[in-house]
Amino acid sequence: MTPRSSQAHPAKADPAQSDAEMAELVVPDWMRPLVEVARSVTGEQLSRFLPPDEGGRQSAVLVLFGEGDSDAGPDLLLIQRASTVSSHAGQPAFPGGAVDDSDADVVAAALREAEEETGLDPAGVDVVATLPALWLPPSGFVVTPVVGWWREPSPVGVVDPGEVERVVRVPISELLDPANRFCVSHPSGFVGPAFAVRDLLVWGFTAGLLSRLFALCGWELPWDDTVLRPLPDTW
């Protein structure tokens, strides 16, 4: 079922949060299936690329869902990386990056990176779950997705053009629209799901994670995964 704006209700407890924190945590009705999935999903359900026993640089991304506006409905915060960065240049992605020594944990890292990249105020975000860590072979990152509810939205935009080219709140309805979904192929042999939304081609890790989450929580609409398009030469 496509998520729609609704009243907020308490979410079930996340073991990583205290009783006091959970007593105050609420999410809208449309988000509850996603929260349930996020708190029980395994890494194998999300990706075939799981972290190695050793090695890899620890990182985190913020998968942030908001209420959106009354016309477009609930949305998701994405960035487009600048074409000049060394890793995943020009690609749409979740806000995030490497875990620093100063970060208390992956949640702190995800919120810090989102603030640095988009100007997001972390005080308005409720973390509802941390997903299993996943592996990005091309960059060697071990990535932990942190799922958040944007309880009190704050203005967002490009903070450092050298790092981020665009900051976009993409309606979930557009991501779920079968007309915006297809698969892409990379010269390396990689084939995976993709979304064409808001002049963005969302593919790779970001699209793969979203595609799995949408299917698992029952939001997915039937789409033709036999439609295969080559990635632009840029990537």
Instruction: Determine the mean pLDDT.
Output: 90
Oligomer: single chain
Architecture in CATH? Alpha-Beta Complex
Per CATH, the superfamily is Nucleoside Triphosphate Pyrophosphohydrolase
Kindly state the percentage of residues in helix: 10-25%
Number of DSSP E strands: 14
How much of the sequence is in beta strands?
25-35%
* Alpha-carbon Rg, integer: 17 Å
How many structural domains in the coordinates?
1
CATH-assigned fold name = Nucleoside Triphosphate Pyrophosphohydrolase
Please trace the helix and strand order, writing H or E for each element: EHEHHEEEEHEEEEHEEEHE
- Total helical segments: 6
Largest sheet: 8 strands, mixed
Structural class: alpha+beta
Task: Please state the overall shape, judged from the principal axes of the Cα atoms.
Answer: globular
Poorly predicted ranges: 12-16, 18-23
Distance between the amino and carboxyl termini: 33 Å
CATH class descriptor: Alpha Beta
Question: What's the structural blueprint in terms of helices and strands?
Answer:
Layout lengths: L7 E3 L8 H6 L1 E3 L3 H7 L4 H4 L10 E13 L3 E9 L10 E2 L2 E3 L7 H13 L6 E6 L3 E3 L4 E10 L13 E8 H5 L4 E5 L5 E7 L2 E3 L1 H13 L11 E3 L5
Parallel strand pairs: 3-9, 11-14
Antiparallel strand pairs: 1-2, 3-4, 3-6, 4-5, 4-10, 7-9, 8-9, 11-12, 12-13
